[in-house]
Amino acid sequence: xxxxxxCGAVLEFKIPASDNRERAVxxxxxxxxxxxxxxxVGTIPVWKDQILLCRRAIEPRYGLxxxxxxFMEIAETTEQGALRExxxxxxxxxxxxxxxxxxxxxxVHQVHLFFKADLLDQTFxxxxxxxxxxxxxxxxxxWNELAFLTVxxxxxxxxHEQAAGNYTLHVDVVHSASKYIVAAS
Amino acid sequence: xxxxxxCGAVLEFKIPASDNRERAVxxxxxxxxxxxxxxxVGTIPVWKDQILLCRRAIEPRYGLxxxxxxFMEIAETTEQGALRExxxxxxxxxxxxxxxxxxxxxxVHQVHLFFKADLLDQTFxxxxxxxxxxxxxxxxxxWNELAFLTVxxxxxxxxHEQAAGNYTLHVDVVHSASKYIVAAS
Lengths: 185, 185
Fold this sequence. Notes:
2 copies of one chain form a homodimer. Chain A is α+β, with helices and mostly antiparallel strands.
């Protein structure tokens, strides 16, 4: 960020009055340009004991498997965003059955939210951002070909609890720079 | 948003290739400037059966009561942000005991997260953004002088469940343009 998006002036970086951290401040129109974390919303679409996964047709993590998820848009709710991403990426219509995981990914300034979801039918199909979409029984999940650590952790918790049918909200943080790390947006 | 924050050129508003909604796009450096919802993080600080509230020293809602909360910053987690805001606004040190409510406020592009929290001691004090900070027993909460509908709803649920000591995660949406509505950030 170098220029004021409101007036075009060159920005200064300083701590504004009554603040305690450096911001991009416009010396001309005085606007303070805050930068805040983004929300990624997605679902865990279930059909009987199977889980729907998408193989990514885009970078980052082209060719790896993920739960349907993406950046929340303005003027929608978290649940609407999760439903939209599930439809866009997997062509799947689901009914949400509760928030399942909230995982902070602070090094890329993101918070990932996954909702439990029941598939309404089996008419799913790969969207523009997916190479293929498939149902997996828990033992068949491609654990070594998952795109993101937040998806990996969510699927681990979910499949573990699936047998007992007793689900708990998981609030977690991902710090590791492992191979599963989400690329900066 | 009128100017590219990366190169200073005048932005165009159009639907980029492989997208499905209008974005601010730079015709010069080609950057797409996405706008996404912001996260507000806060706590419900409890001491025995009492709840800590702050009276706002800033707009919007100057003079009204709220739970300690504010915009999540980059490079922190939701829990770290909730702890930071509780310290900044109420001078209070707490231990978090779980996510309690997640409330979408789509008309102002926000998601509010409140964590249950136990006060570690009674040394709280008003921060720069608070006129005063006080503990309230549930019957004494100033229901008609609360700043935000998300705080109102969270306190209603919490005080209702407090008697039984059995807390449930609440996922909700606030659409109303009532007197409690959060001002656009």
